[in-house]
Design a protein that fits this description.
alpha/beta; elongated
Length: 404
């Protein structure tokens, strides 16, 4: 089959969504010869440079076909098939002109099915495979990032339409699959569970590590939380737990926060001041991915308290680098992390503090978590994920041959 692979306009500042798509795209392009299908990349102007720089591909002024069976170096990546239009792929659903343009391109390329590795795909009169990471606007609609400025209506309209018509829907857990069935009445056979892979985090040598450590002024024995500053990332309850550690257990562990501001950072900083934790909490802002390995490896533990799930990447990244994990016990967390993390109620600062204290005072528990984390991190790779994608396409191929 000919597969249109839609590339989003995500940038590194987007965090996990960019990492997820970029690493899958790299793996797919390097292993496409193992599939009997042909892939044509559709990318907007806004997605071009970051993907090109991270994919070891040459650029061309128009879309490029990845030929079936080619074993040599891939020829190129489409920087834009929408060059003449002032929009990104994310605007497709809202613009009939662009939708028509895309349909004409798909017909010209004789596309059989559309594949989107992220929750970003046009709803067209074409078979398509869409990825779903969460449906939190249905489960926790009170968070402003999924409810304000028309966001709830936008998400609901998008998912209600796109999930109902999808040939296949990819989720990372059985929990995610059940939520799609529950909220949108999609038949189970059209939902495929592919567990999240463990992202590759670049590692650096010790001398460089020391230089970076000095540059970031990293403290010893710190808790690490890489998360953009959205309300659902739950920084405030973490700060309350840090305060509880200090007052109840006489334990003053530093906290290092990494992530772009999504509108809530100033509020989090005000809570730091209010709780008199300025000496313990460091805000590093957006950190290049090349530096993340150091931050994980030198941390006492990852503390990941996001209210959203069921799938999250940072706990898997931490496990791969020997960093023990304390994570929020949200729906699907046990399925994703197993016994390789300590799970806590993200609404209970005292429980969070008690768990951190237990980990601090029990070195054997910490080592066991590291060992179990390394084992869990090696269970699923990007190659495994892409092989499941190939199998899904194979499964659909005989169905697609039934019409022109």
């Amino acid at each position: 089959m000919k597969v249109a692979l839609f590339v989003s306009s995500s940038t590194p500042e987007a965090g996990g969504s960019y990492t997820f798509e970029q690493q899958l795209l790299d793996t797919l392009l390097k292993s496409h010869a193992e599939s009997r299908h042909t892939f044509i990349l559709y990318a907007s102007d806004r997605s071009g440079s970051s993907y090109i720089l991270n994919s070891d591909l040459k650029t061309v002024p128009d879309r490029i076909v990845v030929p079936q069976g080619v074993k040599s170096k891939i020829l190129g990546l489409a920087k834009s098939i929408l060059r003449k239009l002032p929009y990104s792929i994310g605007d497709l659903l809202a613009d009939q002109r662009r939708t028509k343009y895309i349909i004409n391109s798909l017909k010209t390329d004789q596309i059989d099915i559309i594949l989107s590795l992220t929750p970003n795909c046009p709803t067209l009169e074409y078979p398509y495979i869409i990825t779903v990471w969460d449906l939190q606007h249905k489960l926790q609609s009170y968070f402003p990032e999924v409810s304000e400025s028309g966001e709830w209506d936008r998400r609901e309209k998008f998912y209600a339409k796109i999930l109902s018509r999808a040939a296949f829907i990819i989720t990372g857990t059985e929990t995610g699959k059940a939520e799609v069935q529950r909220f949108y009445q999609v038949p189970a056979q059209r939902i495929r569970v592919i567990p999240f892979f463990t992202p590759q985090v670049e590692s650096t040598d010790d001398p460089i590590d020391r230089d970076i450590s000095i540059a970031y002024n990293l403290p010893d024995q710190y808790l690490f939380y890489p998360a953009q500053f959205w309300p659902h990332k739950n920084h405030v309850n973490l700060l309350l737990a840090i305060k509880c550690l200090k007052e109840k257990y006489n334990l003053e562990l530093p906290l290092v926060l990494v992530g772009s501001d999504k509108g809530n950072e100033s509020y989090v900083k005000s809570i730091v001041q209010e709780l008199d934790l300025s000496a313990q909490v460091s805000f590093l802002g957006f950190v290049p991915r090349a530096d993340m390995a150091l931050l994980y490896r030198n941390a006492f533990a990852l503390i990941f308290l996001s209210f959203f799930g069921p799938d999250n990447l940072p706990p898997l990244e931490a496990m791969a680098l020997g960093c023990p994990v304390i994570a929020a016990n949200v729906s699907g967390a046990t399925e994703q992390l197993g016994d390789a993390a300590l799970l806590v109620d993200p609404k209970q600062p005292e429980e969070i503090a008690a768990t951190i204290n237990t980990l601090f005072t029990d070195s054997m528990l910490r080592q066991n978590l590291i060992d179990r984390g390394l084992k869990r991190a090696n269970q699923w790779t990007t190659k495994d994920y892409i092989q499941e994608i190939f199998a899904m396409l194979d499964d659909f191929e005989t169905i697609r041959y039934c019409w022109e």
